[in-house]
Every structure is written in C-alpha cells, then in structure tokens.
Write a structure and sequence with these properties.
Layout: E1 7-11, E2 16-20, H1 32-54, H2 59-76, H3 98-117, H4 125-135, H5 174-185, H6 194-208, H7 215-229, H8 241-246, H9 248-261, H10 264-300, H11 307-319, E3 322-324, H12 325-332, H13 336-348, E4 353-354, E5 363-365, H14 367-370
Antiparallel strand pairs: 1-2, 3-5, 4-5
Helix pairs in contact: 1-10, 2-3, 2-11, 3-4, 3-7, 5-6, 6-7, 6-10, 9-10, 12-13
Length: about 375
C-alpha cells in the first residue's frame, strides 16, 4: 500500500477525466491500525452472523433491515421518505412524496432480487447491471440507460462539467475498468482480506461511476451483495448506508482523498470503523428483538383462544410493522367486528398504536418494534 497511486488525469479537451489505476493486482498490508480494525470487525461480524443460525425465524426480520438500508441509502441521494412512510401503501403517501417513495421501493426490490440471483449468478457486472435496471424502473433516471453502462461522460457535483467536483473516467474505458473490478472481486490467487476487498471495490466503483444515474445506491448495495456472495454473512443483515448517511461529509471526503492524495489507508480505516459501528448496532437490534419477542409472547397468552390469530398478525408485523384493518382481516379470515376486537386487544397490550397522518385509511403500527430500527 505504500506505493499505491490512485490514478491520473487525462485531458479530454475542455475538461480532464480521472482515470483510476487498476485494482486487480497483488496488495500488501503493512498498517497495524488497519490490521487491528480488521480483526475487530471480523470478530463482530462473526458474532452477528451467529444470529442467522440461532434465531429460527430470522427471515421475518430481514425485510426491516432491507427497508432501513433502502431509506438511508436513498436519503444520501436526497430522497425524504422515512422508514415509517416507506411502509405505507402508495395511496397513503402524500402526492409530493410519491417519487421518493417509489425510489425506496425500487431499492428494496433491487436488493432482494440481487440477493436471490446470487444463488445462480456470481457477483459480476451482469448482476450489477440487472440490479441497476430494477433500481431505475419507472422513477427519476428511468431515461438514463437503466441496466447499461454509460456511453457518454458524466460528472459529480456542479451545475455543469465545467464546475464539477469530480469527473470520472471517459466512457470508452468503463467496460475495461469494470472487467478489472470483477476480476479483483474473484481473485483468489493474490490474497486480500474480504472486508478490505469490498472497501476497495466500493471506492473503485464510485470512482468509475459506470452508470449515468444511480451509482451511489448501486455502489452501496454492492457491499451487502459481496458479503453474502463471499459467505462472510449467511443472510443480508449488514448494511452501511446508515453509517455513510450520518457521516455523509466524511464519506465523500474520504473517497475524494483517495483520488487526490492516493490515501487508501484513510478510506480503509473509515470503512472498517463503519463496519464495526454498524455491526455493533445490528447486534443491539437483534438483542432488542429477542427481548421484545419474549415480552410480546407473554402478552399473547392473554388472548386465550384468539392467540392463534394474534400470532398470525404478529408474524406479519415483524416483516411489515404497519397494518390496516383489511390486512388483518386477510391474515385471519375473521369477520370485521372480530378484526376490530383483535386490533383493540393488541392496542390494549401496547403492541399496536394508531398511526397519525395516514391519508386514506386507519393504520396501526407496532411502534416498539419499529423503533428498534430507528
């Protein structure tokens, strides 16, 4: 890493594009601070991954982790949909917020589809393109070549290329750079720790900026895909967008610091601190879920003969903690008066709380559970 050079600028006439160095090569780690952070991150991820084995119904809770990732990653790009609004049906969302809501929903669809495709398709440019296509479907950016690498120059920041903060490599080199990125992702000859590898892959992807739109969201989504693909985590339960959003200036500054000063060490430190902090918070969230499950299960006993229907609703709430009357009726096949009685009982137990601000129908939230993800 001592001799790492991030790249060089090439004149394209009226501007200069940044052409990054290829990353598929042998890397040597000689920084003890990074090695220490890497060790700490590995231990915590191992602890977090244990939940995948020891919580029998962990799939119930993964959708909420995905939802949080979708709202936070989209928030970095300027959307204003919060985690509660993202759980609404579109007719319950204010019209001026529906574009943002759709972008968050697309992120969820793209991530879920990509994780499923990992069973038959490796981490690759093809997977990244297919994910990007879903991400931009029917939303802002839908005319910017969804699922295709760009065929023209783009830039980051500034009203035009003339005052841009950063100009990625010329479009004719994108395929070669992405080929190098893919080879590095699967290079098992030149060993490099996987957490540092995905840190470098993320930096390189954001520097290449291979799409006309959606690069930031795809680049952050790639982190979870790589971790699952390499079996670092068995389930997609670790996402860094919340950390990046809360440290947005540092996130962008550290990416630019690599390009301008070839300081890859600082980027690795920042990324690993993000992994450590995020993993600790995820462990706390799962501990909170287990404690809440125990308390709620004890409350379910009070429902007596209605406890079976109560658990049907509860299992739905763990995946989607906002529910309406019709959904409860659909889940339980109860009559409308019985549905209202069940909702009333769940409210009395402080499991459900009526939502204020929903536009068209009464909604109820599993508030204590939803708050674990905020």
């Amino acid at each position: 890493m001592k001799h790492f050079k991030s790249g060089y600028y090439v004149s394209q006439g009226s501007y200069k594009s940044f052409q990054p160095s290829n990353i598929n090569r042998q890397w040597q780690m000689d920084n003890m601070e990074i090695i220490s952070l890497l060790s700490q991150a590995d231990r915590l991820i191992g602890k977090l991954d244990m939940y995948s084995e020891y919580i029998p119904n962990i799939d119930l809770f993964i959708s909420m982790h995905v939802l949080k990732e979708a709202t936070q990653s989209s928030k970095i790009e300027g959307t204003k949909t919060n985690i509660e609004e993202a759980l609404y049906d579109i007719e319950d969302v204010d019209e001026e917020k529906r574009d943002d809501w759709n972008e968050v929903q697309n992120y969820i669809k793209a991530l879920q589809a990509a994780v499923n495709k990992l069973e038959v398709l490796p981490f690759s440019s093809r997977l990244i393109k297919e994910t990007h296509k879903i991400l931009l479907e029917g939303v802002r950016g839908k005319h910017k070549l969804p699922g295709e690498f760009r065929r023209s120059q783009n830039w980051i920041g500034g009203a035009s290329i003339k005052d841009a903060i950063f100009i990625p490599p010329v479009h004719t080199t994108v395929n070669d750079y992405m080929g190098d990125l893919e080879k590095f992702a699967h290079n098992e000859i030149d060993y490099f720790p996987d957490l540092l590898k995905i840190a470098l892959l993320h930096y390189q992807f954001e520097t290449i900026h291979p799409f006309l739109d959606g690069n930031g969201r795809v680049g952050r989504l790639m982190i979870a895909l790589f971790l699952v693909d390499k079996k670092i985590i068995k389930k997609p339960i670790l996402y860094l967008s919340d950390f990046f959003e809360r440290n947005r200036s540092l996130y962008y500054d550290n990416l630019m610091r690599v390009r301008e000063k070839s300081d890859i060490k600082q980027w690795f430190k920042f990324f690993l601190v993000g992994v450590i902090e995020t993993t600790e918070k995820s462990i706390q969230t799962f501990d909170g879920i287990l404690k809440l499950q125990k308390v709620v299960e004890e409350k379910m006993q009070d429902l007596g003969s209605r406890s079976t229907n109560g658990r049907l609703v509860l299992n739905y709430l763990y995946q989607h903690p906002i529910v309406g009357v019709q959904k409860v009726r659909e889940l339980t096949s109860l009559s409308l008066p019985s549905v209202y009685k069940l909702i009333e009982d769940l409210g009395r137990m402080e499991i459900l709380v009526k939502v204020t601000g929903a536009k068209r129908k009464k909604l109820y939230v599993f508030r204590e559970y939803l708050d674990l993800f905020k």
